[in-house]
């Protein structure tokens, strides 16, 4: 029986449950194993406790043999590969961002000065460009906690990844789902990363059966932007890629000033994910992306 390491939140266990079910459908018995992280214990902002806190504990549990596999939200992983581990990307969920607003309001219908919750610099910068009048507030906690701020009337709206809402059974709470050309999503948003130890041949084979080629290529191109920019997952960087039937990738990516006044956006096409991501990031750097990120 394979042990799949996961955080204990509803979203994390739901995501890991999809992987477990896929493994079982392929003939590999598996069960979930909860790994507690520092972030789960103290609920500190990720900026204070470190970007990788939610993934490090899972990777260490995997490397030590406590678990046989680990499931992450791909957008939360550092871009540097961990050579101890074998990583695959299964079928991807929706990559878009969603609005949850009081009274069923859409983004355009939000009143002047509406209080909107999000802590992602990528979202903050784009929202300020779209609606400078908004009062953007920090937002912490799991999905249920974040949604409760709207339910209690403390915020007029919040912005969340639609993938998390869908996986958690809350898709109907979204009052609007943003077109990715309007609100560019985070690199690899909606994608999962599933890892096992690289020297475990049986588990490598089991994971390879879950690979989705389109999700793998698109996520690789998007994350290569981050790697080339040397930016972390909390940087004001966005990217999403699509792949045509002939294998050609179209990558749209951007870097944004937090005040919303400057937006650098590039669209690049090609068939090699790493080359496409690298070329897009270099184009952004040539236009001054480094200064915006700093």
From TrEMBL:
UniProt GO BP: protoporphyrinogen IX biosynthetic process
Domain of life: Bacteria
Cofactor: dipyrromethane
Modified residues (S-(dipyrrolylmethanemethyl)cysteine): 233
One GO location term (cellular component): cytoplasm
Comment on bound cofactor: Binds 1 dipyrromethane group covalently.
E.C. number(s) listed in UniProt: 2.5.1.61
Keywords: Porphyrin biosynthesis, Transferase
Positions of the Porphobilinogen deaminase N-terminal domain: 2-202
MF term (GO), any: hydroxymethylbilane synthase activity
Reaction equation(s) it catalyzes: 4 porphobilinogen + H2O = hydroxymethylbilane + 4 NH4(+)
Domain (Porphobilinogen deaminase C-terminal) ranges: 217-285
Subunit-structure text: Monomer.
Similarity section: Belongs to the HMBS family.
NCBIfam families, alphabetized: hemC
Function: Tetrapolymerization of the monopyrrole PBG into the hydroxymethylbilane pre-uroporphyrinogen in several discrete steps.
Further comment: The porphobilinogen subunits are added to the dipyrromethane group.
Name recorded for this polypeptide: Porphobilinogen deaminase
Source organism per UniProt: Corynebacterium imitans
């Amino acid at each position: 029986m394979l042990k799949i390491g996961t955080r204990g939140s509803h979203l994390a266990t739901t995501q890991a449950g999809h992987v477990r079910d896929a493994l079982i459908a392929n003939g590999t018995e598996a069960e979930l194993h909860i790994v507690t992280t520092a972030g789960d214990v103290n609920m500190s902002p990720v900026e204070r406790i470190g970007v990788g806190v939610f993934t490090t504990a899972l990777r260490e549990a995997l490397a030590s043999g406590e678990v046989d596999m680990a499931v992450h939200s791909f957008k939360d992983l550092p871009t540097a590969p961990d050579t101890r581990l074998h990583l695959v990307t299964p079928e991807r969920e929706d990559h878009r961002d969603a609005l949850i607003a009081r009274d069923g309001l859409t983004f355009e219908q939000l009143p002047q000065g509406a209080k909107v919750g999000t802590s992602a610099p990528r979202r903050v910068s784009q929202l300020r460009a779209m609606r400078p009048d908004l009062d953007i507030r920090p937002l912490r906690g799991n999905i249920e906690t974040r949604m409760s701020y709207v339910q209690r009337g403390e915020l007029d709206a919040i912005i969340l990844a639609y993938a998390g809402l869908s996986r958690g059974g809350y898709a109907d709470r979204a009052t609007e789902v943003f077109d990715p050309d309007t609100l560019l999503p985070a690199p690899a948003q909606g994608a999962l990363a599933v890892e096992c130890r690289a020297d475990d041949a049986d588990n490598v084979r089991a994971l390879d059966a879950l690979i989705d080629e389109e999700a793998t290529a698109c996520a690789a191109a998007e994350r290569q932007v981050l790697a080339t920019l040397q930016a972390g997952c909390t940087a004001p960087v966005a990217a999403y890629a699509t792949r045509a039937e002939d294998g050609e990738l179209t990558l749209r990516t951007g870097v944004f000033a937090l005040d919303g006044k400057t937006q650098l956006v590039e669209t690049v096409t090609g068939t090699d994910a790493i080359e496409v991501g690298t070329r897009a990031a270099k184009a952004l750097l040539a236009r001054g992306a480094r200064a915006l990120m700093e």
